[in-house]
Amino acid sequence: MTDNLDTSDRFRLAAPDDARRAALAAELIGKTRTVPDWPAPGVQFRDITPLLADAGTLAAIVGAFADRYRNAGIAHVAGLEARGFILAPAIALAIGAGFIPVRKKGKLPWRTVEEQYQLEYGTATVEIHADACAPGERVLLIDDLIATGGTMMAALNLLRRLGADVVEGGAIVRLPELGGAARLQAAGLPLFTLCDFAGH
Question: Is position 120 annotated as part of the catalytic site?
Answer without folding.
Answer: yes
